[in-house]
Amino acid sequence: MAKYTIKRLLYSVLILFFVMFIIYILMYNMPMGYVETKARELASRPGATKTYTEWLADLNAQYGMDKGVVGGYFTWLKSALTGNWGDSWVWTVPVTQEFHDTVWYSFALGLISFIFEIIIAIPLGITAAKKQYSFTDYFTTVVAMICISMPTFFIATLLKYIFSVKLGWFDLSGMQGRNYMNLSDFGKFLDVAKHFVLPSITLIIISIGGLMRYTRTNMLEVLNSDYIRTARAKGVPEKKVINYHAFRNTLIPLVTTLGGSLPGLFAGALITETLFAIRGIGFASFASMTRGDIPFIMFYLAFISILTLLGNLISDLLYAVVDPRVRLS
Amino acid sequence: MAKYNLNEVLKQRETERSAADFAKAQAKAGWNKTNSFASNAEDPLHTGATPQQQLALDDVSRVKALSPGRQVFKRFVRNRLAVTGSLILIIMFVFSFIGPLFYPYGQKQIFYKFDTMNENYALAKQNTAFNGYDIDPDVTVERKVVNSMNSNIKKMIMSPDNASQHALLVLGEDGSYLIENTADNIYLLSSVDTEKVASLGSSTVKVGTYSQLGKSFEFEKDEIAGLAADAAANIKSKSGSFTSNGVEYTWQKGSKPKTFDVFAETDGLVFTGDDLGSEFEDALNDAVEHDTKLFRSGQTSYFLDQQGKRTDVYELGNRAEAAKVYTSYTLDTFNVGEKVSDEFKIQALLSIGKGNRFESQGVSYTIKEEDGVLVIYDNSGKEYAEFNLFSVRRYSGEDSMEYGLKKAISAKIEDMLEADQKTGSLIYAIPQQAEDGSAMKDEDGNYIMNDTEMKITQRLEGEYVINCEQIKYMIDTYASPSRAHVLGTDGDGFDMLARVMYGGRVSLMVGFVVVIIETILGVIMGGIAGYFGGWVDNLIMRLVDIFYCLPSLPIMIILGAMMDAMRLDPYKRLMVMMAVLGILGRAGVARLVRGQILSLREQEFMVATEATGIRIRDRIFKHLMPNVMPQLIVTATMGLGSVILTESTLSFLGLGVKHPLATWGTIINSVSSASAIAHYAFIWIPVGLLICLTVIAFNFVGDGLRDAYDPKSKR
């Protein structure tokens, strides 16, 4: 187990190295990035002493962009490994600072949706499986399919239209109300919480369908297995069959998948956060991406890649932990 | 499934047997009756289906089931959701690919409409400015003089004495100009040669120059006795004054060092040059007495120019032809929009006060004054035009208004002035505007007139703005659904339904192209890796792992921002987007294909292909691939839905397909602002539902296909 984990970790580091290299190449070749914009701005300032090209060369040297792709990548890698991720160009604070400022909002949003997703999707999936081919089953399947098939932006717009425009219950976007500054600490908390309602619903809707289908399929598989038939033949009450024998076995794949998605809670919801202007890491990175903020994007994409690899690792390890039949090699 | 088919076969057997039994009984009866062999051919013993034949386990008709393809099809058709999905897809394809062929509008066709638009229609004001017309373009007038014409004319009007009101001499840098008032509100500007000959009234005259070095005094004209000595005694500092013989003198530092200019205050006539004699003096005094600015003495004319207490006398030399005529009148013609040449105006203006008759382009006209307005009659005695001090013009300054409307507005403003109101309104028929902004005519060539309420508001003293709702031809933006535009129009005046159709085309096309790219790439990579194994497998799968780990949405966003910066053509952008989506998506397909091939490779039929020595290429593509196909088709179908989602999300964020190309994402994006969400729900809700429906349909079909291919598979 330990050997397997170490092997997987080393392998992940190798993959990460190449992934970041591909991303660095992409970022390096970005025209009209932050540096160019900044150089143009500085050159057109009244009383500018240098031309655009001079500024560009200056800034490139300052930001370590003059060493070529490979050299630049290794410079970046070296400083990143020593914990120096540089300053964000767009946010004008150290990258880690901006990360620290934003990630907890994303985590809160992710966690809320994750909990609700589990609470809603798993019972529904199990109910659907229990009564296969019933109306409930079809209804759940279709609802799950609709949830999977809806584009995030459409759900967000629809929710905004219904709850903000028509009913006026929530603000269209943003994280704070108009008189946020005058509220007590608890009032501030409630105010932010209120602004998190619509984004959370959006996230719940888009993630609920997949989990529901997954639960249903696994439950069906378990219900069709031999030991359930044996239990039923022995005359075990149906309630006990479902809740004790079947449900426990359904949990095996569920725990592994959900465990694998735990790191993803920190990754932020790029589109949802952008549409609702929640100052989470997704929102920050979207703004950085469209403005060519290389240090922040490199950090964010490295972070995301690490989370993905970590998720895969966790889910593989959990599989072995939860189900003793599985041997890792 | 097989059980189902067997049942059907059995049922069929049953009905066949009972029918045969019946026929046999009948035949037997007939045979007994007729004893004929005629029905021998119908003897069931000689037909294929013997009623006596029992079903055995190895019965051909029992083993013979449907072909695999038909079996899959049958299973698929039994799945209601899958059939619904296929139907939706068929409708969607017909709608987006065939619909535009029959729909009259294109995706980039802009629609216009006639609608009322509140605008400033006209401006009415009391003319205070004077406009100049070139009488003789050859006579050049200094720009400075032209620019100050209005203030000079005002100065003439404001001046207290009669003489100044009639004529003014303007001294420019290169020459002099004379402004004469020929009639009310008409001024004539002509260039003139001048020379200052004398000045009248108190003036400072330079007497001479005193040089401290030589203690000498140089007189300008006649020597004044005792002045030199007094100057030598008094002049010390830079400037000052002293008296000599009771006359006060002032001195100032001269241009050369140690020299001083000495001035004397004189009262009366001082000649600049030669003394012009008593005849001139008499004429001058006469002119001053009679308050005229121009007078003659001998053969020359002189002009008096008042400069404070002093009056300068200029000799007028060669007087050129009048260069310009200035007037504050505006000319209103009785015919709508008739353009009158400047030449006509000049002739008319020059003739006023000089017989009131003039000729322009062979037609003679007469001018008569009526109630402060100068009316011009043509030779038939008809009113042709009039000079007016109150001008009513279109807000743009152009003279295209009807005479009646001008009169009506002037009359209304007079009423307003009398009643001391600042606003007023009247109703008048004004022409509708056509495509090119001109007045619109109907089939008979008559103007289409609409009764319009014109609101008059006073803006400044003597200036009024006329505001009305004019019917104009403009881009039909955000039109509500109507018969012409079933889904209305968007912010650019494009027909929504056409956009939705073409948008569906792009969305579906992107989906298919991307899925085809990723399937081809995935199959090649996965196939090679899976079949060959070893280091090839290792290399390819590590590559796949890397691509699998790449966060695709951030990369697409970065690429979108890059292409924004490069200002890529929308079509090229579309290509790049499809290629990148395909490359990023191939990793999943490659994994799937490799996994399938790894398990298939170990099966007996593959061993058989190897044993029979079939070529490697045929082994992969003829024997392995067909077995991977079902999985591949299912993944591709599901992938179509997700690609359409990705594409619409990117387009919604403004980083995918760009305006003016339509896709479902951009259509929603165009009405996603806070205010548009509420007002244009009829645009984005149907389009959003279309995206949902299409993706759902692809997912249903994918699910159905999987169930049909492999009923026991895990979902």
Descriptive report:
The complex is a heterodimer of chains A (329) and B (715). Chain A is mostly helical and 329 residues long. Chain A folds into two domains: 2-81; 102-322, MetI-like (MetI-like fold), CATH 1.10.3720. Helices cover 74% and strands 0% of the residues of chain A. In chain A, 38% of the residues are buried. The model of chain A has no long low-confidence stretch (mean pLDDT 84). With 715 residues, chain B is of the alpha+beta class. Chain B folds into five domains: 6-64, no CATH class; 128-201 and 271-324, no CATH class; 203-266; 328-475, no CATH class; 496-714, MetI-like (MetI-like fold, Orthogonal Bundle), CATH 1.10.3720.10. At the A-B interface, helix 1, helix 6, helix 7, helix 9 and helix 12 of A face helix 13, helix 14, helix 17, helix 19 and helix 20 of B.
How is this fold's topology laid out?
The complex is a heterodimer of chains A (329) and B (715).
Chain A: H1 2-28, H2 34-43, H3 52-62, H4 68-81, H5 95-130, H6 135-149, H7 152-166, H8 185-195, H9 197-223, H10 226-233, H11 238-261, H12 270-276, H13 281-291, H14 294-322
Helix pairs in contact in A: 1-14, 2-3, 5-6, 5-9, 6-9, 7-9, 9-11, 10-11, 11-14, 12-13, 13-14
Chain B: H1 2-34, H2 60-63, H3 68-78, H4 80-102, E1 112-126, E2 131-134, H5 143-147, H6 149-158, H7 162-166, E3 167-171, E4 176-183, E5 186-200, E6 203-211, E7 216-219, H8 227-234, E8 240-244, E9 247-253, E10 259-266, E11 270-271, H9 277-290, E12 294-297, E13 300-307, E14 310-327, E15 330-333, H10 342-351, E16 357-360, E17 363-370, E18 373-377, E19 383-388, E20 390-394, H11 403-419, E21 423-431, E22 449-460, E23 463-475, H12 496-532, H13 534-549, H14 552-566, H15 570-601, H16 604-611, H17 616-652, H18 664-669, H19 674-679, H20 681-709
Antiparallel strand pairs in B: 1-20, 1-23, 2-14, 3-4, 4-5, 5-11, 5-14, 6-7, 6-10, 8-9, 9-10, 12-13, 13-14, 15-19, 16-17, 17-18, 18-19, 21-22, 22-23
Helix pairs in contact in B: 3-20, 4-12, 4-20, 12-13, 12-15, 12-17, 13-15, 14-15, 15-17, 17-20
